[in-house]
Queue: 2 jobs
Job 1
Amino acid sequence: MLARLPRGFADRTADDIRAVEQMMAKIRAVYELYGFEPADQPLIEYTDALGKFLPDQDRPNEGVFSFQDDDEQWLSLRYDLTAPMARYVAENFERLPKPFRSYRSGWVFRNEKPGPGRFRQFMQFDADTVGTPGVAADAEMAMMMADVMEALGIPRGDYVIRVNNRKVLDGVLEAIGLGGEENAGRRLIVLRAIDKLDKLGVEGVRQLLGPGRWDGGKEGEGDFTKGAGLSAQQANRVLADIGVVEALGDGEFPSSQTFADGQGELMQIEQLVVASGYGPDRIRIDPSVVRGLEYYTGPVFEAELLAEIPNEDGQIVRFGSVGGGGRYDGLVSRFRGEPVPATGFSIGVSRLMSALKALGKLDTSSTVGPVVVLVMDRDTDSLGRYQKMVSDLRQAGIRAEMYLGGSGMKPQMKYADRRGAPCVVIQGGNERNAVDENGNPRPMVQIKDMVAGAELAANIEGHDAYKEARPGQMTVPEAELVGTVRGILAAQRAERG
RNA sequence: GCCGUUGUAGCUCAGAUGGUUAGAGCGCCGGAUUGUGGAUCCGGAGGUCCUCGGUUCGAUCCCGAGCAACGGUACCA
């Protein structure tokens, strides 16, 4: 039996968990400030509630982890937080205040090929407003996202919230003659192509808009991806309208009403955010943003990190999108006969965390470990004394533990070192049986400051001298144990700043 | 799914034209009767050389297939 982690999943260390909690507290504070309420839905929903595609018998796990209940109904692990939220709101519609403003966080699952920074289980942190048709709600989302980025310590200029409108894209497609039901497939291909702009560049996208593109980058390498089959003029119009190339001749294609509507909404959003003091350094209109291809119906936005961040190997990586969202007027109404407009966004917590880590914006220094009371003698009487010391320290609010392994002193010291113990407590027979100047029993303890000890040890040559010196160590009466430890902790805290 | 690269100790990697007992560094464990982390020294544990099949007297090495990891690309509601 080989112990192994399934691919696409991650074990989390103590540091990671603490860092995420720290981060989520900051995000939560912003959401609360905006007046959103916490809510939570389960990890599992009926498959048909999650989206319009039911897993068929042949491929029950395409993209989503699914399984059948004992009553044969299909259940799935949620792949985002929006669909379960929509189900909850629809189910409790009468009871909830409208607009319903809520936030939630948790794990989501995708049964897809994992890659660097792409996991099959990851954490999202969402906020949504349901029951509001106006663009003011969308503008608020964009501003809140900007506030979150700054609350996390990302300096202005190192991120940008890019805003677009699905109606603009739809309008472009209409203009070049891709409107109508019969062109739905090609529209999708065009949108996907635009979405790959940052990955493939303008020319790559142009190939995908036209005949297609070879995976490997050149002719015959890799698989051939069939394109949208647009003419050169159509492709150029699309690229021009999303602002990545110069327009050629005008008037070749008619302008579209949908396009104009979308732009009107974008202008309103821009006015609203500018009026609130959010300039283009934070929130920027960008017609090339595509986002989630299926359910968005209006404004869409994306939070992008602009900072060039070195990864563990020292290479510069662009993290790109760390969150996004938009208007999804159809999601809740799917469950109800009436239209229910809604808008929201989602932060990719896991991804953002690795970015913050790389930026040094995350306090990854581990928490101070417990004070370790070494076990020098294993008779019940001594163990009782050690246990009492631990208990006293805990009473004083100091993390502490008695060594519970079976090894000798040296391994115990190694253990304390590895645990990040600020100090250890040592009491053998010599200390326990000490007497004062009058010959009365006066039990002592030795307390070793591990931080000071390590510093002092650096200047000691040779193991014998090192052992002899016992750096950072002091002997105090047992009664002064707690006070002395407290002093060491305070000094170390001051040292750390 | 498709294309490519790679699979040898916990990690990073050597290795020989196909020949007895497969190595290094790091890490891990241990090292004087009451003791002490790091460094140094000494010792130790740890391997199906990815799997299966083929060629061969003999395969970790050559051949075939499979699996896995990594990268790119596609899909990603």
Job 2
Amino acid sequence: MSDRNRTKPISMDAMLFLTDDQLLQGIELMYFAYKGFTSDPDRILQNYTYGRAHHRAIHFINRHKGLKVNDLLDILGITKQSLNRVLRQLVDDDLVDSRIGTKDKRERNLFLTDKGIALERELSDAQRKRMRAAYRAAGPEAVQGFRLVLEKIMDGETRQRLQRITDT
Amino acid sequence: MSDRNRTKPISMDAMLFLTDDQLLQGIELMYFAYKGFTSDPDRILQNYTYGRAHHRAIHFINRHKGLKVNDLLDILGITKQSLNRVLRQLVDDDLVDSRIGTKDKRERNLFLTDKGIALERELSDAQRKRMRAAYRAAGPEAVQGFRLVLEKIMDGETRQRLQRITDT
DNA sequence: GTATTAAGTCAGCATTATTGACTTTATAAG
DNA sequence: CTTATAAAGTCAATAATGCTGACTTAATAC
């Protein structure tokens, strides 16, 4: 019998349920949970002419009121051309207000209008309700763990980008 | 002062960090984590002619070897016509083997070929690596919580569907 | 023998993303 | 002051993934 076999009776991997199958289960869980997570807004958005892209724009404009177009592009990780169509619709439909920057007039600061705030409410209420129910059912400790793992799954790049925006 | 105010000094919501802002943070976390979660496979798939839809098909055919086309449609929650394009490509490219059912000859049982198994490996290795790192960094208790909350976020319908397939 | 089921197909359309090539306006650098 | 850079916006073409509707083929069920 080798040294290796004698000195590693309980591996770190075993403690963490890190068998390939357990990891695959986690991966699936992530997929299905995300599907549930987006299902409420998706259903609501069907009543409008909007899709997920609009939802995301509305969400982040609400979270970071007055953010610049470039910041939004940075957060979403999409191209200017991709956002353009969506943002133009939202501005045309009077959900988003695009104000010329006070310091630098090239910049546009984005805000939700009252109409935009109303839609944001409708969307996030549904999503919050689901999260609240899940949190309740799972309990406070589970929520702590949930958040911790999600943070670690995120790209480091994304984490930094978020930090940058939040600091501003 | 009303009874209600006196008897509820610390609410269940407060214990669970259920303020609207905390919930919104959880929602964002979910969005960004999912983005990170899919980034590795997405990068790999760019080297092929495939996308996320192909990945999902490959994943579930691997997880439930020999599953029927209808089962796969059920799991993915998409239409037959949507899957068709993807599945045909995978069969044409010799990644998936579609065998006529032994009991009911109308049915097709789906399997990965050696080539399909190789791609599945490449994709899931990357994803597992990320999950393993996140699990390690967060610790066993956090992982427990993570899984518990994700289960609760899922649609009840989805949970039942999964159960149905797993039992088979 | 007819109805139903499983699978597969074709056509057309919508959403969301991409790249490339520009324009306009405003600020920064020389 | 002129030129370079930067922020925003636009047009066109393309791709991936989903949808609905309308079918066909083959096999099983009644």
